[in-house]
Amino acid sequence: MRPRRTTARGRFAATLAIDLTVRAVKGGDDAERAEHVRSLIRCLPDIDQEIVRLVYWDGFTQEQVATIIGKSATAVRARLSRARGVLRDRLAEGGDVE
Question: Which pTM does this prediction carry?
Fold first, then answer.
């Protein structure tokens, strides 16, 4: 079992990598990596895709997204956390995250 600090640091690093990749997608800095992330997002369930897009592309807060999609804020946070975990794992499998 890893110490809590190491686990939190790893989650933060992976989330930051996803955030930076999403920003690169928006800015068009790295077209190949951007398309790779888009393809990974397309593998998520439709509701999770929508949540990821609303939060990262459109800049809505999780509470705003909850109102938009008609789910509780807790459900949105849980789905977003799971979606980030899936993306983090898939990016790590591809060597895109350290």
Answer: 0.66
Position of tokens 């790295």? Answer: 30
Residue of 9, 1, 10, 30 whose CA lies nearest to 88:
10
For residues 73 and 62, is the Cβ–Cβ distance under 8 A?
Answer: yes
Write out the residue range of the structural domain in which residue 25 sits. 4-91
CA neighbor of 20 nearest in space, from 89, 82, 96: 96
Domain of 74: which CATH number?
Answer: 1.10.10.10
**Which secondary-structure segment (H or E) carries 36?**
helix 31-42
Tokens of 93: 């499998």
Percent of the chain beyond pLDDT 90?
Answer: 50
